[in-house]
Specification:
The protein is of the alpha/beta class and 205 residues long. Helices cover 39% and strands 15% of the residues. It is built from nine helices and nine strands.
Length: 205
């Protein structure tokens, strides 16, 4: 599956920080039940790769990948456990669109975007979106970089997501609001499914 097919599956990609392996599969199933089938597990906890493996192997209908990928070795590690895509907060030196699994690199400036395009990438994470200009930055990128598509992440929430999704160069947004830590710790999977359903319904303005 290529990155365009992955990011086009839903308007919101949940950005997940999972502390307990036991939470991984029920969390993923709750999100998929709500209509969010692309799941990004950030590599910020010791159990993250195991969570990717469990979710990829056990959740029907899910496309499972990893975020906070910082090196080529981390990209390979995600592929080795069955992950289907990677997201990085910035450009990884030496990495291109070719690789074991698709990679969506992060950019914050026009110079970084040009470097990413030169490396063969077409889809980018704008990060941190709320710090580097948000909607206005994406509008500014649209004309000189018509071939670039974006998944803005950072400061995206239920209140402002639709503003981003209304832009023609935005294919989806990434956010953690659909899986609040309190709900995960409480095992309140029905609440997470409700949040996912609302997020999945976000349309263009």
């Amino acid at each position: 599956m290529i990155i365009d097919q992955i990011v086009s599956r839903a308007s919101v990609i949940p950005v997940l920080v999972i502390d307990e392996v036991a939470d991984a599969v029920p969390l993923g199933r709750a999100l998929v039940a709500g209509g969010l089938s692309v799941l990004e597990i950030t590599l910020r906890t010791p159990v993250a790769l195991e969570c990717v493996q469990r979710m990829a192997g056990e959740i029907e209908g899910a496309v499972v990948g990893a975020g906070t990928v910082l090196t080529p070795a981390m990209r390979q590690a995600v592929a080795d456990v069955g992950g289907q895509f990677c997201v990085s907060p910035g450009l990884i030196e030496g990495e291109t669109c070719e690789g074991a699994i698709p990679l969506m690199p992060g950019i914050a400036t026009a110079t970084e975007l040009m470097a990413g395009l030169a490396a063969g990438f077409t889809h980018f994470k704008l990060f941190p979106a709320n710090v580097v200009g948000g909607v206005d930055a994406l509008k500014a990128f649209a004309s000189p970089f018509q071939q670039a598509k974006f998944c803005p992440t950072g400061g995206i929430n239920a209140e402002n997501a639709a503003n981003y999704l209304a832009l023609p160069n935005v294919v989806c947004v990434g956010g953690s609001w659909v899986a609040p830590q309190a709900a995960v710790r409480a095992g309140d999977w029905s609440h997470i499914t409700q949040l996912a359903r609302k997020a999945a319904a976000l349309g263009r303005l």
